[in-house]
Write a structure and sequence with these properties.
Layout lengths: L9 E6 L7 H20 L8 E7 L5 E2 L5 E2 L3 E2 L8 E4 L7 H6 L1 H12 L3 E5 L3 H6 L7 E2 L6 H7 L4 E2 L5 E4 L2 E4 L2 H16 L1 H10 L8 H4 L1 E2 L2 H4 L3 H12 L7 H7 L4 H12 L3 H19 L4 H7 L5 H12 L3 H13 L1
Parallel strand pairs: 1-2, 1-6, 2-5, 6-7, 7-11, 8-9, 10-12
Antiparallel strand pairs: 3-4, 10-11
Helix pairs in contact: 1-6, 1-7, 6-7, 13-14, 13-16, 14-15
Length: 336
Protein backbone atom coordinates (compact mmCIF):
# COMPACT_ATOMS: atom_id res chain seq x y z
CA UNK A 1 0.00 0.00 0.00
CA UNK A 2 1.03 3.64 -0.41
CA UNK A 3 2.84 5.37 2.45
CA UNK A 4 0.52 8.32 1.87
CA UNK A 5 -2.97 7.42 3.12
CA UNK A 6 -4.44 10.24 1.02
CA UNK A 7 -3.26 8.64 -2.25
CA UNK A 8 -6.10 6.45 -3.55
CA UNK A 9 -5.23 3.13 -5.17
CA UNK A 10 -5.80 2.25 -8.81
CA UNK A 11 -8.69 -0.20 -8.72
CA UNK A 12 -8.58 -3.07 -11.22
CA UNK A 13 -11.58 -5.39 -11.53
CA UNK A 14 -11.21 -8.73 -13.30
CA UNK A 15 -14.29 -10.78 -14.15
CA UNK A 16 -14.01 -14.43 -13.11
CA UNK A 17 -16.36 -17.23 -14.13
CA UNK A 18 -16.42 -20.91 -14.96
CA UNK A 19 -14.56 -21.88 -18.14
CA UNK A 20 -12.35 -18.78 -18.19
CA UNK A 21 -8.91 -19.01 -19.79
CA UNK A 22 -6.68 -18.86 -16.71
CA UNK A 23 -3.68 -17.41 -18.57
CA UNK A 24 -5.74 -14.37 -19.56
CA UNK A 25 -6.37 -13.84 -15.85
CA UNK A 26 -2.86 -14.38 -14.50
CA UNK A 27 -0.92 -12.67 -17.31
CA UNK A 28 -2.29 -9.14 -16.78
CA UNK A 29 -2.07 -9.49 -12.99
CA UNK A 30 1.61 -10.45 -13.08
CA UNK A 31 2.48 -7.75 -15.61
CA UNK A 32 0.61 -5.05 -13.71
CA UNK A 33 2.26 -6.09 -10.45
CA UNK A 34 5.67 -5.93 -12.13
CA UNK A 35 4.97 -2.39 -13.32
CA UNK A 36 3.69 -1.43 -9.87
CA UNK A 37 6.81 -2.83 -8.16
CA UNK A 38 9.11 -0.92 -10.52
CA UNK A 39 7.19 2.32 -10.04
CA UNK A 40 7.22 1.93 -6.27
CA UNK A 41 11.02 1.82 -6.28
CA UNK A 42 11.47 4.64 -8.79
CA UNK A 43 8.88 7.27 -7.90
CA UNK A 44 8.03 9.71 -5.16
CA UNK A 45 6.44 7.85 -2.25
CA UNK A 46 3.79 10.52 -1.77
CA UNK A 47 2.55 10.32 -5.37
CA UNK A 48 2.88 6.57 -5.92
CA UNK A 49 -0.47 4.83 -6.42
CA UNK A 50 -0.69 1.14 -5.48
CA UNK A 51 -2.89 -1.32 -7.32
CA UNK A 52 -5.97 -2.85 -5.73
CA UNK A 53 -6.95 -5.88 -7.82
CA UNK A 54 -10.42 -7.38 -7.32
CA UNK A 55 -11.67 -10.68 -8.74
CA UNK A 56 -15.35 -10.12 -9.47
CA UNK A 57 -17.87 -12.96 -9.91
CA UNK A 58 -21.62 -13.39 -10.01
CA UNK A 59 -21.50 -14.80 -6.45
CA UNK A 60 -18.92 -15.61 -3.79
CA UNK A 61 -18.60 -19.34 -4.56
CA UNK A 62 -15.19 -20.76 -5.45
CA UNK A 63 -14.75 -21.24 -9.20
CA UNK A 64 -13.00 -24.40 -10.35
CA UNK A 65 -11.12 -24.02 -13.62
CA UNK A 66 -10.08 -26.50 -16.27
CA UNK A 67 -6.54 -26.38 -14.91
CA UNK A 68 -7.71 -27.83 -11.59
CA UNK A 69 -7.03 -24.54 -9.81
CA UNK A 70 -9.83 -22.87 -7.89
CA UNK A 71 -10.43 -19.13 -7.97
CA UNK A 72 -11.85 -17.41 -4.90
CA UNK A 73 -13.69 -14.18 -5.84
CA UNK A 74 -12.93 -11.04 -3.80
CA UNK A 75 -16.37 -9.59 -4.39
CA UNK A 76 -19.53 -10.04 -6.39
CA UNK A 77 -20.91 -8.01 -9.23
CA UNK A 78 -23.31 -6.41 -6.75
CA UNK A 79 -20.77 -5.23 -4.15
CA UNK A 80 -17.72 -4.58 -6.33
CA UNK A 81 -16.04 -1.19 -5.74
CA UNK A 82 -15.62 1.32 -8.53
CA UNK A 83 -12.87 0.09 -10.87
CA UNK A 84 -10.65 2.30 -13.00
CA UNK A 85 -10.02 -0.67 -15.29
CA UNK A 86 -12.07 -3.81 -15.90
CA UNK A 87 -10.57 -6.86 -17.61
CA UNK A 88 -12.73 -9.64 -19.04
CA UNK A 89 -10.64 -12.81 -19.58
CA UNK A 90 -11.08 -15.16 -22.51
CA UNK A 91 -13.49 -18.11 -22.45
CA UNK A 92 -12.65 -21.74 -23.12
CA UNK A 93 -14.48 -22.87 -26.24
CA UNK A 94 -18.05 -21.79 -27.03
CA UNK A 95 -18.82 -18.54 -25.17
CA UNK A 96 -22.63 -18.70 -25.52
CA UNK A 97 -23.45 -20.91 -22.47
CA UNK A 98 -20.97 -18.98 -20.31
CA UNK A 99 -22.61 -15.67 -21.21
CA UNK A 100 -26.08 -17.08 -20.46
CA UNK A 101 -24.91 -18.30 -17.04
CA UNK A 102 -23.33 -14.97 -16.06
CA UNK A 103 -25.80 -12.23 -16.88
CA UNK A 104 -24.90 -10.60 -13.55
CA UNK A 105 -21.43 -9.86 -14.98
CA UNK A 106 -23.00 -8.36 -18.10
CA UNK A 107 -24.98 -5.96 -15.90
CA UNK A 108 -21.81 -5.18 -13.93
CA UNK A 109 -19.99 -4.24 -17.16
CA UNK A 110 -22.79 -1.87 -18.15
CA UNK A 111 -22.72 -0.22 -14.72
CA UNK A 112 -18.91 -0.03 -14.66
CA UNK A 113 -18.66 1.60 -18.07
CA UNK A 114 -21.44 4.04 -17.20
CA UNK A 115 -19.47 5.37 -14.21
CA UNK A 116 -16.22 5.73 -16.17
CA UNK A 117 -14.34 2.42 -16.14
CA UNK A 118 -12.02 1.45 -18.98
CA UNK A 119 -12.64 -2.09 -20.25
CA UNK A 120 -10.34 -4.67 -21.85
CA UNK A 121 -11.99 -7.72 -23.41
CA UNK A 122 -9.83 -10.73 -24.24
CA UNK A 123 -10.62 -13.08 -27.14
CA UNK A 124 -14.07 -14.60 -26.70
CA UNK A 125 -14.37 -12.62 -23.45
CA UNK A 126 -15.36 -9.78 -25.76
CA UNK A 127 -18.74 -11.53 -26.05
CA UNK A 128 -19.46 -10.28 -22.52
CA UNK A 129 -18.76 -6.71 -23.63
CA UNK A 130 -20.84 -7.16 -26.79
CA UNK A 131 -23.67 -8.74 -24.80
CA UNK A 132 -23.73 -5.55 -22.71
CA UNK A 133 -24.24 -3.62 -25.99
CA UNK A 134 -21.15 -1.54 -25.19
CA UNK A 135 -19.57 -2.41 -28.53
CA UNK A 136 -22.59 -1.55 -30.69
CA UNK A 137 -21.45 0.73 -33.48
CA UNK A 138 -17.80 0.33 -32.45
CA UNK A 139 -14.90 -1.78 -33.76
CA UNK A 140 -13.94 -4.98 -31.95
CA UNK A 141 -11.99 -8.16 -32.48
CA UNK A 142 -12.18 -11.65 -31.01
CA UNK A 143 -10.59 -15.10 -31.24
CA UNK A 144 -10.42 -16.06 -34.91
CA UNK A 145 -12.18 -19.40 -34.39
CA UNK A 146 -15.35 -17.69 -33.14
CA UNK A 147 -15.31 -14.65 -35.44
CA UNK A 148 -18.18 -15.94 -37.61
CA UNK A 149 -20.32 -16.75 -34.56
CA UNK A 150 -19.51 -13.37 -33.00
CA UNK A 151 -20.60 -11.57 -36.17
CA UNK A 152 -23.86 -13.55 -36.18
CA UNK A 153 -24.61 -12.97 -32.50
CA UNK A 154 -23.61 -9.29 -32.42
CA UNK A 155 -24.38 -7.80 -35.87
CA UNK A 156 -24.28 -4.23 -34.53
CA UNK A 157 -20.57 -4.54 -33.70
CA UNK A 158 -18.06 -3.55 -36.39
CA UNK A 159 -15.97 -6.73 -36.24
CA UNK A 160 -12.33 -6.32 -37.31
CA UNK A 161 -11.08 -9.94 -37.42
CA UNK A 162 -7.82 -8.93 -39.15
CA UNK A 163 -6.75 -6.82 -36.16
CA UNK A 164 -5.36 -8.17 -32.90
CA UNK A 165 -6.21 -4.94 -31.02
CA UNK A 166 -8.96 -2.36 -31.30
CA UNK A 167 -9.54 0.75 -29.22
CA UNK A 168 -12.79 2.67 -29.05
CA UNK A 169 -13.38 5.37 -26.45
CA UNK A 170 -12.62 3.59 -23.15
CA UNK A 171 -12.85 0.07 -24.58
CA UNK A 172 -10.04 -2.17 -25.76
CA UNK A 173 -10.57 -5.54 -27.41
CA UNK A 174 -7.77 -8.02 -28.09
CA UNK A 175 -7.73 -11.27 -30.04
CA UNK A 176 -4.80 -13.08 -28.39
CA UNK A 177 -2.67 -13.29 -25.27
CA UNK A 178 0.23 -11.59 -27.03
CA UNK A 179 -2.05 -8.69 -27.95
CA UNK A 180 -3.25 -8.57 -24.33
CA UNK A 181 0.37 -8.22 -23.22
CA UNK A 182 0.82 -5.30 -25.63
CA UNK A 183 -2.22 -3.50 -24.22
CA UNK A 184 -1.14 -4.11 -20.61
CA UNK A 185 2.25 -2.53 -21.34
CA UNK A 186 0.36 0.43 -22.80
CA UNK A 187 -1.78 0.63 -19.64
CA UNK A 188 1.33 0.46 -17.42
CA UNK A 189 2.83 3.40 -19.32
CA UNK A 190 -0.34 5.40 -18.58
CA UNK A 191 -0.38 4.49 -14.88
CA UNK A 192 3.34 4.49 -14.08
CA UNK A 193 5.18 6.04 -17.03
CA UNK A 194 7.25 4.94 -19.99
CA UNK A 195 10.20 3.69 -17.95
CA UNK A 196 8.04 1.26 -15.97
CA UNK A 197 6.41 0.03 -19.19
CA UNK A 198 9.81 -0.54 -20.80
CA UNK A 199 10.94 -2.42 -17.71
CA UNK A 200 8.01 -4.82 -17.99
CA UNK A 201 8.48 -5.21 -21.75
CA UNK A 202 12.20 -5.85 -21.39
CA UNK A 203 12.16 -8.22 -18.45
CA UNK A 204 8.78 -9.87 -18.59
CA UNK A 205 7.20 -10.06 -22.00
CA UNK A 206 9.67 -10.83 -24.75
CA UNK A 207 6.92 -11.36 -27.30
CA UNK A 208 6.05 -7.65 -27.49
CA UNK A 209 7.63 -6.52 -30.75
CA UNK A 210 5.93 -3.34 -31.90
CA UNK A 211 4.54 -0.30 -30.11
CA UNK A 212 0.90 -0.59 -29.12
CA UNK A 213 0.07 2.51 -31.18
CA UNK A 214 1.33 0.83 -34.37
CA UNK A 215 -0.83 -2.29 -33.97
CA UNK A 216 -4.27 -1.17 -32.87
CA UNK A 217 -7.30 -0.34 -34.92
CA UNK A 218 -8.16 3.04 -33.42
CA UNK A 219 -11.70 4.22 -33.96
CA UNK A 220 -11.70 7.71 -35.45
CA UNK A 221 -7.94 7.70 -36.08
CA UNK A 222 -8.41 8.99 -39.63
CA UNK A 223 -10.43 11.91 -38.32
CA UNK A 224 -7.70 12.78 -35.83
CA UNK A 225 -5.00 12.53 -38.50
CA UNK A 226 -6.52 13.73 -41.78
CA UNK A 227 -3.21 14.85 -43.32
CA UNK A 228 -2.84 12.36 -46.16
CA UNK A 229 0.55 13.71 -47.24
CA UNK A 230 2.01 13.17 -43.76
CA UNK A 231 0.49 9.67 -43.74
CA UNK A 232 2.31 8.99 -47.04
CA UNK A 233 5.56 10.25 -45.53
CA UNK A 234 5.07 8.05 -42.46
CA UNK A 235 4.65 5.02 -44.73
CA UNK A 236 7.79 6.01 -46.66
CA UNK A 237 9.79 6.32 -43.43
CA UNK A 238 8.59 2.90 -42.22
CA UNK A 239 9.64 1.22 -45.45
CA UNK A 240 12.94 3.06 -45.92
CA UNK A 241 14.69 2.75 -42.54
CA UNK A 242 18.08 2.26 -44.17
CA UNK A 243 17.74 5.29 -46.46
CA UNK A 244 20.71 7.66 -46.58
CA UNK A 245 18.39 10.65 -47.05
CA UNK A 246 18.09 13.06 -44.14
CA UNK A 247 14.71 14.45 -43.10
CA UNK A 248 15.29 17.70 -44.98
CA UNK A 249 15.75 15.67 -48.16
CA UNK A 250 12.71 13.53 -47.36
CA UNK A 251 10.62 16.68 -47.00
CA UNK A 252 11.93 18.01 -50.32
CA UNK A 253 11.09 14.68 -51.95
CA UNK A 254 7.45 15.35 -51.05
CA UNK A 255 7.67 19.01 -52.17
CA UNK A 256 7.60 20.44 -48.65
CA UNK A 257 9.91 22.89 -46.97
CA UNK A 258 11.47 21.41 -43.84
CA UNK A 259 9.75 24.01 -41.67
CA UNK A 260 6.31 23.19 -43.11
CA UNK A 261 7.03 19.45 -42.93
CA UNK A 262 7.98 19.67 -39.25
CA UNK A 263 4.93 21.77 -38.37
CA UNK A 264 2.48 19.52 -40.22
CA UNK A 265 4.08 16.33 -38.92
CA UNK A 266 3.85 17.44 -35.27
CA UNK A 267 0.27 18.66 -35.77
CA UNK A 268 -0.75 15.29 -37.26
CA UNK A 269 1.16 12.90 -34.99
CA UNK A 270 1.98 14.88 -31.84
CA UNK A 271 5.64 13.95 -32.45
CA UNK A 272 8.52 15.57 -34.24
CA UNK A 273 9.76 13.79 -37.40
CA UNK A 274 13.10 13.15 -35.67
CA UNK A 275 11.41 11.46 -32.68
CA UNK A 276 9.19 9.39 -34.96
CA UNK A 277 12.02 8.16 -37.21
CA UNK A 278 14.21 7.31 -34.21
CA UNK A 279 11.32 5.33 -32.72
CA UNK A 280 10.89 3.40 -35.98
CA UNK A 281 14.61 2.64 -36.15
CA UNK A 282 14.83 1.49 -32.54
CA UNK A 283 11.84 -0.84 -32.99
CA UNK A 284 13.35 -2.17 -36.22
CA UNK A 285 16.65 -2.82 -34.47
CA UNK A 286 14.85 -4.60 -31.59
CA UNK A 287 13.13 -6.91 -34.06
CA UNK A 288 16.40 -7.76 -35.82
CA UNK A 289 18.29 -8.29 -32.55
CA UNK A 290 15.58 -10.69 -31.37
CA UNK A 291 14.94 -12.60 -34.58
CA UNK A 292 18.14 -12.55 -36.65
CA UNK A 293 21.81 -13.49 -36.35
CA UNK A 294 23.02 -10.24 -37.90
CA UNK A 295 25.96 -8.62 -36.14
CA UNK A 296 25.34 -5.38 -34.23
CA UNK A 297 27.09 -3.48 -37.02
CA UNK A 298 24.85 -5.10 -39.63
CA UNK A 299 21.73 -4.34 -37.58
CA UNK A 300 22.83 -0.70 -37.33
CA UNK A 301 23.19 -0.44 -41.12
CA UNK A 302 19.82 -2.17 -41.71
CA UNK A 303 17.97 0.48 -39.71
CA UNK A 304 19.84 3.50 -41.02
CA UNK A 305 22.63 4.13 -38.50
CA UNK A 306 26.06 4.52 -40.01
CA UNK A 307 27.91 2.48 -37.39
CA UNK A 308 27.52 0.28 -34.33
CA UNK A 309 28.50 3.09 -31.97
CA UNK A 310 25.63 5.30 -33.14
CA UNK A 311 23.11 2.50 -32.56
CA UNK A 312 24.59 1.79 -29.13
CA UNK A 313 24.31 5.44 -28.06
CA UNK A 314 20.65 5.58 -29.11
CA UNK A 315 19.85 2.26 -27.37
CA UNK A 316 21.44 3.38 -24.12
CA UNK A 317 19.52 6.64 -24.24
CA UNK A 318 16.13 5.10 -25.08
CA UNK A 319 16.27 1.63 -23.48
CA UNK A 320 19.05 2.07 -20.90
CA UNK A 321 20.94 -0.94 -22.27
CA UNK A 322 23.25 -1.69 -25.16
CA UNK A 323 22.09 -3.65 -28.23
CA UNK A 324 24.18 -6.61 -27.05
CA UNK A 325 22.56 -6.55 -23.61
CA UNK A 326 19.09 -6.32 -25.17
CA UNK A 327 19.81 -9.27 -27.46
CA UNK A 328 21.09 -11.37 -24.55
CA UNK A 329 17.96 -10.74 -22.47
CA UNK A 330 15.53 -11.37 -25.35
CA UNK A 331 17.34 -14.48 -26.63
CA UNK A 332 17.45 -15.96 -23.14
CA UNK A 333 13.67 -15.57 -22.88
CA UNK A 334 12.97 -16.77 -26.41
CA UNK A 335 15.16 -19.83 -26.39
CA UNK A 336 16.07 -20.50 -22.77
Amino acid sequence: MSNNPLTPPINIGIAVFEHLLVTSLTLPIEMLRAGEAFAKGHSDKNSFKPLAIHLVAKNSDAIKTRTGLSIIPDCTSENSPYCDLVIVPGIWRNPRPVIRANQQLVTWLIESFTVGSHIIGVGTGNCFVAEASLLDGHPATTHWHYAKQFKHDYPNVSLKPDFFITQSERMYTVASLNALADVIVHIISQYYGKEAAQHVERNFSHEIRKPYEDQRYLEGAVDRHPDELIAQIQFWLKTNLASELNLQEVAAQFSLSYRTFTRRFRSATNQSPIEYWQQLRVEGAKDLLASSNLSIQEVALEVGYNDQGHLTRVFKKVLRQTPSEYRKVVRRKLFG
